[in-house]
């Protein structure tokens, strides 16, 4: 059974979606939409796409094409609500890039609309399908780190700078998603401070420092910046017996446990059992797993247990709370 799909957005991530859906045995790409015709033609040539695939500059026209059962949306976040709403009302299943929307109320509305239409709303939180993140979740759940103390994440680069969202909305969702998964908890309060350097209108925070507090008392600290040439993608969870580190920039050893703890010896604290354990990770393309999960959800018409619309809405709610804190000069905001 092939599921007819239209893909909206032929940029960097949209191109990856196109490649995966074109190569999947249970999907048939019917149309690709992008307002830039040259971009569409370049992707068609680079991926050697079937000439039968319709290339369109207007997404509304794609919704009228015969044979479509689902749409995949890789467009700017500010466009998500309008496109997803229209697609669901047409009776299509939807895969959307994160964040689901830029307003929590809109995200909830779309989740309810999907349920009313008996269609699947699925959010591409790719890290949830990354074997590294999945292995990390198992390690934390098994208690190998001991009693959890705190977490930290750094996500920096020199570009791209988004025109429709700031560094918080662009970057924070990835690390929050991973932390929520590893802890199996959701923050109960958040705090954020931002710095603006670039002369954009409206002003956008180029640097954000954020804190998440979870029900257990665990706190995580996020460093987010898109004006730092020191590119980092590093997240750690610290426990009494060691630290679990996901370093995405370390291709050969992305997941390690740095073992060690302190013991009191002769009235001094001494590091004991210090060692580094490199964890073996299964090989799989996370986005390929995303596409496969979405298609399976359509075939069974059941919500994803990993990344449903409600998961996306929950993360939008956390981002909205962080944004409120940012606008209020770092005030602690309940989630």
Keywords:
335 residues; alpha/beta; Rossmann fold; 9 helices; globular
What would you report as the Rg, rounded to the nearest angstrom?
Answer: 21 Å
Number of domains: 2
Number of strands: 15
Topology as H/E string?
A: EHEHEHEHEHEHEHEEEEEEEHHE
Based on the coordinates given, report the CATH architecture of the largest domain. 2-Layer Sandwich
Shape: globular
Helix content: 25-40%
User: Roughly what fraction of the amino acids lie in strands?
Assistant: 25-35%
Fold-level CATH name of the largest domain: Dihydrodipicolinate Reductase, domain 2
Major beta sheet summary: 9 strands, mixed
Structural class: alpha/beta
InterPro entries: Gfo/Idh/MocA-like_OxRdtase_N, Gfo/Idh/MocA_Oxidoreductases, GFO_IDH_MocA-like_dom, NAD(P)-bd_dom_sf
GO molecular function: nucleotide binding
Protein name: Gfo/Idh/MocA family oxidoreductase
Organism: Okeania hirsuta
Task: Write a brief caption for the model.
The protein has 335 residues and is an alpha/beta fold.
Describe this structure in words.
This protein is an alpha/beta fold and 335 residues long. The protein is built from 9 helices and 15 strands. A hairpin with a 7-residue loop joins β12 and β13. This is Gfo/Idh/MocA family oxidoreductase. InterPro entries: Gfo/Idh/MocA-like_OxRdtase_N, Gfo/Idh/MocA_Oxidoreductases, GFO_IDH_MocA-like_dom, NAD(P)-bd_dom_sf.
Reconstruct the topology from this structure.
Elements lengths: L2 E6 L3 H12 L3 E7 L3 H10 L7 E3 L2 H4 L7 E4 L6 H10 L3 E5 L6 H14 L3 E4 L6 H11 L6 E9 L10 H17 L5 E7 L11 E7 L5 E7 L6 E8 L2 E6 L7 E11 L2 E11 L7 H15 L8 H19 L5 E2 L1
Parallel strand pairs: 1-2, 1-4, 2-3, 4-5, 5-6, 7-10
Antiparallel strand pairs: 7-11, 8-9, 8-15, 9-10, 11-12, 12-13, 13-14
Helix pairs in contact: 4-5, 5-9, 6-7, 7-9
């Amino acid at each position: 059974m092939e599921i007819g799909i239209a893909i909206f957005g032929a940029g960097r991530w949209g191109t990856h979606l196109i490649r995966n859906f074109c190569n999947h045995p249970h999907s048939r790409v019917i149309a690709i939409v992008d307002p830039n015709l040259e971009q569409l033609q370049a992707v068609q040539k680079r991926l050697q796409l079937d000439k039968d695939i319709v290339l369109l500059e207007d997404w509304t026209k794609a919704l009228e094409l015969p044979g479509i059962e689902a749409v995949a949306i890789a467009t700017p976040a500010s466009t998500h609500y309008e496109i997803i709403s229209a697609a669901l009302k047409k009776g299509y299943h939807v895969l959307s890039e994160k964040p689901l929307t830029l307003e929590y109320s809109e995200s909830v509305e779309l989740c309810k609309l999907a349920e009313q239409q008996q269609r699947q709303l699925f959010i591409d939180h790719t890290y949830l399908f990354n074997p590294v993140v999945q292995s990390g979740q198992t390690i934390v759940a098994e208690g190998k780190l001991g009693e959890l103390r705190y977490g930290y994440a750094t996500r920096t680069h020199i570009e791209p700078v988004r025109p429709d969202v700031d560094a918080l909305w662009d970057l924070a969702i990835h690390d929050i998603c991973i932390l929520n998964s590893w802890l199996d908890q959701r923050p109960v309060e958040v705090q954020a401070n931002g710095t603006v350097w670039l002369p954009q209108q409206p002003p956008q925070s180029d640097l954000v420092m954020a804190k998440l507090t979870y029900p257990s008392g665990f706190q995580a600290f996020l460093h987010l910046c898109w004006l730092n040439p020191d590119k980092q993608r590093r997240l750690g969870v610290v426990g009494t017996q060691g630290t679990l580190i996901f370093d995405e920039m370390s291709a050969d050893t992305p997941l390690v446990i740095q073992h060690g703890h302190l013991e009191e010896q002769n009235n001094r604290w001494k590091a004991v059992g210090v060692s580094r354990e490199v964890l073996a990770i299964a090989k799989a393309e996370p986005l390929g797993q995303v596409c496969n999960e979405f298609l399976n959800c359509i075939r069974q018409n059941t919500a994803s247990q990993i990344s449903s619309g409600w998961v996306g809405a929950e993360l939008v709610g956390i981002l909205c709370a962080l944004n409120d804190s940012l606008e209020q000069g770092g005030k602690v905001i309940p989630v």
